[in-house]
Design goal:
Length: 319
Protein backbone atom coordinates (compact mmCIF):
# COMPACT_ATOMS: atom_id res chain seq x y z
CA UNK A 1 0.00 0.00 0.00
CA UNK A 2 1.29 3.39 -0.83
CA UNK A 3 2.52 5.52 2.02
CA UNK A 4 -0.07 8.17 1.29
CA UNK A 5 -3.82 7.74 1.52
CA UNK A 6 -5.70 7.96 -1.79
CA UNK A 7 -6.82 11.41 -2.81
CA UNK A 8 -10.47 10.61 -2.25
CA UNK A 9 -9.84 9.40 1.30
CA UNK A 10 -7.78 12.46 2.10
CA UNK A 11 -10.51 14.60 0.57
CA UNK A 12 -13.06 12.93 2.81
CA UNK A 13 -10.91 13.66 5.84
CA UNK A 14 -10.47 17.28 4.83
CA UNK A 15 -14.13 17.89 3.98
CA UNK A 16 -15.46 16.98 7.44
CA UNK A 17 -14.84 19.99 10.17
CA UNK A 18 -15.30 0.23 20.97
CA UNK A 19 -16.28 -17.67 33.53
CA UNK A 20 -12.69 -18.08 32.52
CA UNK A 21 -10.43 -18.72 29.68
CA UNK A 22 -11.13 -22.33 28.75
CA UNK A 23 -8.91 -22.91 25.73
CA UNK A 24 -5.39 -24.05 26.67
CA UNK A 25 -3.13 -21.84 24.58
CA UNK A 26 -3.20 -19.36 21.71
CA UNK A 27 -0.68 -19.15 18.83
CA UNK A 28 2.07 -16.57 18.77
CA UNK A 29 0.37 -13.33 17.75
CA UNK A 30 3.29 -12.03 15.72
CA UNK A 31 3.31 -15.14 13.53
CA UNK A 32 -0.45 -15.59 13.17
CA UNK A 33 -1.48 -12.04 12.40
CA UNK A 34 1.45 -10.50 10.53
CA UNK A 35 -0.06 -11.07 7.10
CA UNK A 36 -3.60 -10.41 8.32
CA UNK A 37 -2.89 -7.01 9.82
CA UNK A 38 -0.29 -5.75 7.35
CA UNK A 39 -0.81 -4.18 3.98
CA UNK A 40 0.60 -5.44 0.70
CA UNK A 41 3.98 -3.82 1.28
CA UNK A 42 4.35 -5.05 4.87
CA UNK A 43 3.31 -1.83 6.60
CA UNK A 44 0.53 -1.59 9.11
CA UNK A 45 -2.55 0.02 7.59
CA UNK A 46 -2.58 2.20 10.68
CA UNK A 47 0.79 3.61 9.61
CA UNK A 48 -0.93 5.83 7.05
CA UNK A 49 -0.43 9.55 7.69
CA UNK A 50 -2.79 10.92 10.30
CA UNK A 51 -5.61 13.11 8.94
CA UNK A 52 -5.88 16.70 10.13
CA UNK A 53 -7.70 17.05 13.41
CA UNK A 54 -11.08 18.69 13.05
CA UNK A 55 -13.37 19.97 15.76
CA UNK A 56 -17.07 19.23 15.82
CA UNK A 57 -19.85 21.06 17.55
CA UNK A 58 -21.83 18.93 20.02
CA UNK A 59 -24.90 19.92 18.03
CA UNK A 60 -23.56 18.45 14.78
CA UNK A 61 -26.40 16.29 13.44
CA UNK A 62 -25.71 12.61 13.00
CA UNK A 63 -27.11 11.31 9.71
CA UNK A 64 -29.63 8.54 10.35
CA UNK A 65 -28.81 5.07 9.03
CA UNK A 66 -29.81 4.76 5.41
CA UNK A 67 -32.10 2.04 4.13
CA UNK A 68 -35.72 1.28 3.36
CA UNK A 69 -36.64 0.33 6.90
CA UNK A 70 -37.11 3.28 9.19
CA UNK A 71 -39.60 1.85 11.66
CA UNK A 72 -37.40 -0.73 13.39
CA UNK A 73 -36.95 -0.20 17.12
CA UNK A 74 -33.37 0.60 17.97
CA UNK A 75 -31.16 0.12 21.02
CA UNK A 76 -28.88 2.95 19.84
CA UNK A 77 -27.74 5.62 22.26
CA UNK A 78 -27.99 8.94 20.36
CA UNK A 79 -25.43 10.72 22.57
CA UNK A 80 -22.90 7.96 21.82
CA UNK A 81 -23.59 8.32 18.08
CA UNK A 82 -22.76 12.03 18.19
CA UNK A 83 -19.44 11.32 19.92
CA UNK A 84 -18.44 8.59 17.46
CA UNK A 85 -19.48 10.78 14.52
CA UNK A 86 -17.09 13.46 15.75
CA UNK A 87 -14.11 11.08 15.79
CA UNK A 88 -14.99 8.96 12.76
CA UNK A 89 -12.20 10.32 10.53
CA UNK A 90 -9.57 9.06 12.99
CA UNK A 91 -10.50 5.34 12.81
CA UNK A 92 -7.24 4.46 11.05
CA UNK A 93 -5.01 6.78 13.08
CA UNK A 94 -3.20 4.35 15.40
CA UNK A 95 -2.23 7.24 17.68
CA UNK A 96 -5.70 8.83 17.71
CA UNK A 97 -8.85 8.28 19.80
CA UNK A 98 -9.06 4.63 18.73
CA UNK A 99 -5.49 3.81 19.68
CA UNK A 100 -6.59 1.29 22.38
CA UNK A 101 -8.68 -0.59 19.82
CA UNK A 102 -5.73 -0.85 17.43
CA UNK A 103 -3.49 -2.06 20.25
CA UNK A 104 -5.95 -4.72 21.45
CA UNK A 105 -7.05 -5.85 17.98
CA UNK A 106 -4.48 -8.68 17.53
CA UNK A 107 -5.33 -10.11 20.94
CA UNK A 108 -9.06 -10.00 20.29
CA UNK A 109 -8.45 -11.67 16.92
CA UNK A 110 -6.47 -14.44 18.61
CA UNK A 111 -9.51 -15.27 20.74
CA UNK A 112 -11.89 -15.03 17.78
CA UNK A 113 -9.71 -17.21 15.56
CA UNK A 114 -9.18 -19.86 18.24
CA UNK A 115 -12.81 -20.17 19.35
CA UNK A 116 -14.42 -19.93 15.92
CA UNK A 117 -11.99 -22.37 14.31
CA UNK A 118 -12.86 -24.85 17.05
CA UNK A 119 -16.58 -24.12 16.68
CA UNK A 120 -16.63 -24.54 12.90
CA UNK A 121 -14.03 -27.32 12.79
CA UNK A 122 -11.47 -25.26 10.90
CA UNK A 123 -7.67 -25.40 10.93
CA UNK A 124 -6.45 -22.41 13.01
CA UNK A 125 -3.12 -22.52 11.18
CA UNK A 126 -4.73 -21.99 7.79
CA UNK A 127 -4.37 -18.41 6.49
CA UNK A 128 -7.93 -18.70 5.07
CA UNK A 129 -9.47 -20.50 8.02
CA UNK A 130 -12.90 -18.87 7.63
CA UNK A 131 -13.35 -19.51 3.89
CA UNK A 132 -17.03 -19.97 3.03
CA UNK A 133 -18.37 -18.55 6.32
CA UNK A 134 -20.52 -15.43 6.62
CA UNK A 135 -19.58 -13.01 9.42
CA UNK A 136 -21.10 -9.70 10.47
CA UNK A 137 -19.14 -7.05 12.37
CA UNK A 138 -21.73 -5.01 14.27
CA UNK A 139 -20.84 -1.48 15.25
CA UNK A 140 -17.03 -1.52 14.86
CA UNK A 141 -17.10 -0.41 11.29
CA UNK A 142 -14.19 1.82 10.75
CA UNK A 143 -13.02 -1.56 9.44
CA UNK A 144 -10.20 -2.48 11.81
CA UNK A 145 -11.94 -5.76 12.67
CA UNK A 146 -13.72 -6.43 9.37
CA UNK A 147 -10.53 -6.28 7.31
CA UNK A 148 -8.55 -8.99 9.18
CA UNK A 149 -11.63 -11.25 9.17
CA UNK A 150 -11.90 -10.83 5.39
CA UNK A 151 -8.21 -11.72 5.01
CA UNK A 152 -8.95 -14.92 6.96
CA UNK A 153 -11.38 -15.84 4.19
CA UNK A 154 -14.73 -14.88 5.70
CA UNK A 155 -17.46 -13.17 3.70
CA UNK A 156 -17.79 -10.09 5.88
CA UNK A 157 -20.60 -7.58 6.35
CA UNK A 158 -19.76 -4.54 8.45
CA UNK A 159 -22.53 -2.36 9.88
CA UNK A 160 -22.44 0.94 11.68
CA UNK A 161 -25.05 3.63 12.38
CA UNK A 162 -22.59 6.43 11.53
CA UNK A 163 -22.36 6.99 7.77
CA UNK A 164 -18.89 8.59 8.03
CA UNK A 165 -17.52 5.40 9.55
CA UNK A 166 -18.92 3.39 6.65
CA UNK A 167 -17.54 5.75 3.99
CA UNK A 168 -14.07 5.69 5.52
CA UNK A 169 -14.19 1.91 5.91
CA UNK A 170 -15.17 1.42 2.26
CA UNK A 171 -12.39 3.65 0.98
CA UNK A 172 -9.81 1.96 3.17
CA UNK A 173 -10.96 -1.55 2.23
CA UNK A 174 -10.56 -0.70 -1.46
CA UNK A 175 -6.80 -0.36 -0.91
CA UNK A 176 -6.45 -4.16 -0.73
CA UNK A 177 -8.09 -6.71 -3.08
CA UNK A 178 -8.56 -9.10 -0.14
CA UNK A 179 -10.73 -6.59 1.70
CA UNK A 180 -12.47 -4.83 -1.18
CA UNK A 181 -15.21 -7.49 -1.10
CA UNK A 182 -16.42 -6.44 2.38
CA UNK A 183 -20.06 -5.31 2.36
CA UNK A 184 -20.40 -2.16 4.46
CA UNK A 185 -23.87 -0.94 5.43
CA UNK A 186 -24.96 2.17 7.28
CA UNK A 187 -27.68 0.49 9.32
CA UNK A 188 -28.41 -1.15 12.67
CA UNK A 189 -28.60 -4.73 13.91
CA UNK A 190 -32.36 -4.29 14.34
CA UNK A 191 -32.81 -3.36 10.69
CA UNK A 192 -30.75 -6.33 9.56
CA UNK A 193 -33.15 -8.52 11.56
CA UNK A 194 -36.09 -6.92 9.74
CA UNK A 195 -34.37 -7.74 6.46
CA UNK A 196 -34.09 -11.37 7.65
CA UNK A 197 -30.31 -11.40 7.29
CA UNK A 198 -28.42 -14.16 9.07
CA UNK A 199 -24.78 -15.07 9.57
CA UNK A 200 -22.64 -17.97 10.72
CA UNK A 201 -20.93 -15.70 13.25
CA UNK A 202 -22.04 -12.38 14.73
CA UNK A 203 -19.27 -10.29 16.31
CA UNK A 204 -19.70 -7.07 18.29
CA UNK A 205 -16.67 -5.70 20.12
CA UNK A 206 -16.76 -2.85 22.63
CA UNK A 207 -20.25 -1.84 21.51
CA UNK A 208 -22.73 -3.15 24.07
CA UNK A 209 -21.60 -0.64 26.72
CA UNK A 210 -22.58 2.17 24.34
CA UNK A 211 -26.14 1.05 23.54
CA UNK A 212 -29.25 2.20 25.37
CA UNK A 213 -30.76 -1.28 25.85
CA UNK A 214 -28.22 -4.14 26.09
CA UNK A 215 -30.93 -6.82 26.35
CA UNK A 216 -32.65 -5.73 23.13
CA UNK A 217 -29.28 -5.38 21.42
CA UNK A 218 -28.38 -8.98 22.32
CA UNK A 219 -31.76 -10.20 21.07
CA UNK A 220 -30.95 -8.62 17.72
CA UNK A 221 -27.52 -10.24 17.66
CA UNK A 222 -29.11 -13.60 18.43
CA UNK A 223 -31.69 -13.13 15.68
CA UNK A 224 -28.88 -12.51 13.19
CA UNK A 225 -27.08 -15.71 14.22
CA UNK A 226 -28.01 -18.94 12.44
CA UNK A 227 -28.97 -21.94 14.57
CA UNK A 228 -25.78 -23.47 15.97
CA UNK A 229 -23.89 -20.37 14.85
CA UNK A 230 -21.51 -18.35 17.00
CA UNK A 231 -21.69 -14.98 18.74
CA UNK A 232 -18.68 -13.05 20.09
CA UNK A 233 -19.01 -9.97 22.30
CA UNK A 234 -16.35 -7.97 24.13
CA UNK A 235 -16.98 -5.29 26.74
CA UNK A 236 -15.81 -3.86 30.07
CA UNK A 237 -16.74 -5.31 33.46
CA UNK A 238 -18.63 -3.11 35.91
CA UNK A 239 -16.06 -3.43 38.68
CA UNK A 240 -14.15 -0.93 40.77
CA UNK A 241 -10.96 -2.10 39.11
CA UNK A 242 -12.49 -1.35 35.71
CA UNK A 243 -13.49 2.11 36.91
CA UNK A 244 -9.94 2.77 38.07
CA UNK A 245 -8.27 1.48 34.91
CA UNK A 246 -10.72 1.89 32.00
CA UNK A 247 -11.95 5.33 33.07
CA UNK A 248 -9.65 7.06 35.57
CA UNK A 249 -6.36 5.78 34.15
CA UNK A 250 -7.22 5.39 30.44
CA UNK A 251 -9.21 8.63 30.08
CA UNK A 252 -7.86 11.03 32.71
CA UNK A 253 -4.27 9.97 33.42
CA UNK A 254 -2.90 8.22 30.31
CA UNK A 255 -5.26 10.01 27.88
CA UNK A 256 -5.65 6.84 25.81
CA UNK A 257 -9.31 7.78 25.27
CA UNK A 258 -11.18 11.09 25.22
CA UNK A 259 -12.68 11.99 28.59
CA UNK A 260 -16.23 10.77 28.88
CA UNK A 261 -15.83 7.90 26.41
CA UNK A 262 -17.17 5.42 28.95
CA UNK A 263 -19.81 5.59 31.66
CA UNK A 264 -19.20 3.13 34.50
CA UNK A 265 -22.93 2.65 35.04
CA UNK A 266 -23.25 1.39 31.44
CA UNK A 267 -20.79 -1.46 31.96
CA UNK A 268 -22.05 -5.02 32.45
CA UNK A 269 -20.64 -7.60 34.83
CA UNK A 270 -19.70 -10.93 33.30
CA UNK A 271 -22.63 -12.61 35.07
CA UNK A 272 -25.05 -10.00 33.72
CA UNK A 273 -23.79 -10.49 30.16
CA UNK A 274 -24.09 -14.29 30.46
CA UNK A 275 -27.69 -13.94 31.69
CA UNK A 276 -28.65 -11.44 28.98
CA UNK A 277 -27.20 -13.69 26.29
CA UNK A 278 -28.83 -16.78 27.77
CA UNK A 279 -32.24 -15.07 27.61
CA UNK A 280 -31.48 -14.31 23.95
CA UNK A 281 -30.80 -18.02 23.24
CA UNK A 282 -27.01 -17.63 23.25
CA UNK A 283 -25.13 -20.03 25.51
CA UNK A 284 -21.74 -18.66 26.58
CA UNK A 285 -19.01 -21.28 26.20
CA UNK A 286 -15.82 -19.34 26.90
CA UNK A 287 -14.63 -16.07 28.36
CA UNK A 288 -11.21 -14.49 28.48
CA UNK A 289 -9.80 -11.29 29.88
CA UNK A 290 -7.12 -8.96 28.53
CA UNK A 291 -3.90 -8.15 30.36
CA UNK A 292 -1.75 -5.14 29.49
CA UNK A 293 2.03 -5.18 29.83
CA UNK A 294 3.23 -1.59 30.34
CA UNK A 295 6.84 -2.58 29.58
CA UNK A 296 6.08 -3.90 26.10
CA UNK A 297 2.91 -1.93 25.42
CA UNK A 298 1.23 -5.19 24.36
CA UNK A 299 -1.97 -6.97 25.36
CA UNK A 300 -2.37 -10.68 26.00
CA UNK A 301 -5.21 -13.04 26.84
CA UNK A 302 -5.75 -13.79 30.50
CA UNK A 303 -8.14 -15.62 32.82
CA UNK A 304 -8.70 -12.32 34.69
CA UNK A 305 -12.03 -10.92 33.43
CA UNK A 306 -12.35 -8.15 36.02
CA UNK A 307 -11.72 -5.33 33.50
CA UNK A 308 -11.82 -5.99 29.73
CA UNK A 309 -13.26 -9.33 28.69
CA UNK A 310 -14.54 -11.17 25.64
CA UNK A 311 -17.18 -13.91 25.45
CA UNK A 312 -17.91 -16.58 22.86
CA UNK A 313 -21.28 -18.30 22.75
CA UNK A 314 -23.37 -20.52 20.51
CA UNK A 315 -26.97 -20.24 19.42
CA UNK A 316 -28.71 -23.52 20.16
CA UNK A 317 -32.27 -22.66 19.11
CA UNK A 318 -33.72 -21.12 15.97
CA UNK A 319 -35.63 -17.85 16.10
Amino acid sequence: MASKLPNQLRALYASTTRHRLLSPRFPNLNEVFRDLLLGSNGRLFSDAPSPPQVSFSPSTPVPPPSGPNTSAPSSLNQKELVEFFASAETWWDSEGPFRPLHAMNPTRLAFIRSTLCRHFGRDPCSPRAFEGLKFVDVGWCGGILSEPLARMGATVTGVDAVEKNIKIARLHADLDPLTSTIEYCCTTAEKLVEEQRNFDAVISLEVIEHVADPAEFCKSLAALTVANGATVISTINRSMRAYATAIVAAEYILHWLPKGTHQWSSFLTSDELVLILQRASISVKEMAGFAYNPLTGRWSLSDDISVNFIAYGTKTTSE
